[in-house]
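Predict the 3D structure for this chain.
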Amino acid sequence: MYYKHGSSYHIIADRKPYMFVTGGSMEALVCLVSTYFVFHLQYATEVLPSLLFTQSQLLEMEDDETKKSSALKLFAQKLRELSSTSA
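Done. Predicted structure below.
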């Protein structure tokens, strides 16, 4: 989990501050996803779709979970269709 506090983002692990990120929101997302990978954690079910989208579409990191998620594929397809019609 991460949240913005003032001009920095805080990544929370086990209800304690784990990391402070002073860059932008994309840097905070990269650090958050990296934390999951470094510690071999599974995404919480409450945020699974959001983190899978972030991982696959924004960070362009594919793995078995993102490849098998039909909801993620459908959402990404609809998003591409929407962006191509507005361009």
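The mean pLDDT is 84.
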